[in-house]
């Protein structure tokens, strides 16, 4: 992708961001599920805004309701109480790449473009531009089994970006990858976020990953999930996961997280 094309894409996202106050607004949201023993409260009175172009990580212990909240924002489920508003339909990226193995990398991206109504004669060019954005140029015709785990997640990221959403929801997308590949994809994600201006709500239980990526870290308490605390991350990008300021803030957040887990009696 040429620098002019990247600039055009970033300008498009920026112009759209100027027209809205929030990429996502979550107001007093609660969620309960029916169980044999009655209703189980998973999320309790959560209010959270994501600004246009902001990168927010949602952090908490396993089972605190992070993925449930992300599914609510994505519109895959409805809250039991409260309201959620987003700037258009969000794009969702899962821990598993969820690519169709019978399609090539390019055709997986084209499927998202087709569902958006992009004309057939435009899809291949756009798919190749998105593959170039995630640094997979030349991979259009490769099948899923020919791609490494990291490459598959890059294709999944390109497919999410193909939805042309102003809000990208990411549910632990790098958790299954080895440390080196994960670190490389951290670099790629922050680069793509900076180039496109898309808003990101990123779920993780890895404290250092949360600090490495985000402008703001939001900690959920253990079940029921509530917003326990927030941190602004003023460490300049690019960051490394081993950088001293990242480690220092991660230690502070970890201590608060441990306190939340102890307070709720979970081990």
From TrEMBL:
Phosphoprotein among keywords: no
Highest taxon of the lineage: Bacteria
Gene3D superfamilies in the record: P-loop containing nucleotide triphosphate hydrolases
Residue ranges of every copy of the ABC transporter domain listed in the record: 24-249
Keywords in alphabetical order: ATP-binding, Nucleotide-binding, Transport
UniProt cross-references to InterPro entries, sorted A to Z: AAA+_ATPase, ABC_transporter-like_ATP-bd, ABC_transporter-like_CS, ABC_transporter_ATP-bind, P-loop_NTPase
A GO term for molecular function: ATP binding
Keyword Transport among record annotations: yes
Name of the featured protein: ABC transporter ATP-binding protein
Organism: Streptomyces argyrophylli
């Amino acid at each position: 992708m040429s620098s002019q094309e990247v600039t055009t894409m970033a300008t498009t996202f920026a112009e759209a961001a100027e027209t809205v106050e929030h990429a996502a607004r979550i107001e007093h949201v609660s969620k309960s599920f029916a169980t044999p023993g009655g209703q189980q409260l998973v999320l309790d009175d959560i209010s959270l805004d994501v600004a246009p172009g902001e990168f927010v990580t949602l952090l908490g212990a396993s089972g605190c309701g992070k993925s449930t909240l992300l599914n609510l924002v994505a519109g895959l489920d409805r809250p039991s109480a409260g309201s959620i508003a987003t700037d258009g339909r969000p794009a969702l990226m899962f821990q598993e790449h969820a690519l169709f193995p019978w399609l090539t990398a390019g055709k997986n991206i084209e499927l998202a473009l087709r569902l958006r109504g992009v004309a057939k004669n435009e899809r291949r060019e756009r798919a190749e531009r998105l593959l170039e954005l995630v640094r997979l140029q030349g991979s259009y015709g490769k099948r899923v089994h020919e791609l490494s785990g990291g490459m598959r997640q890059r294709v999944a990221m390109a497919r999410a970006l193909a939805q042309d959403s102003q809000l990208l929801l990411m549910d632990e997308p790098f958790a299954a990858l080895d440390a080196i590949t994960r670190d490389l994809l951290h670099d790629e994600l922050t680069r793509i976020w900076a180039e496109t201006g898309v808003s990101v709500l990123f779920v993780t239980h890895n404290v250092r990953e949360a600090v490495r990526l985000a402008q703001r870290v939001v900690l959920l308490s253990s079940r029921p999930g509530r917003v326990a605390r927030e941190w602004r991350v003023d460490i300049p990008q690019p960051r490394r996961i081993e950088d001293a300021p990242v480690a220092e803030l991660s230690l502070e957040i970890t201590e608060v997280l441990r306190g939340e887990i102890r307070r709720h009696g979970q081990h």
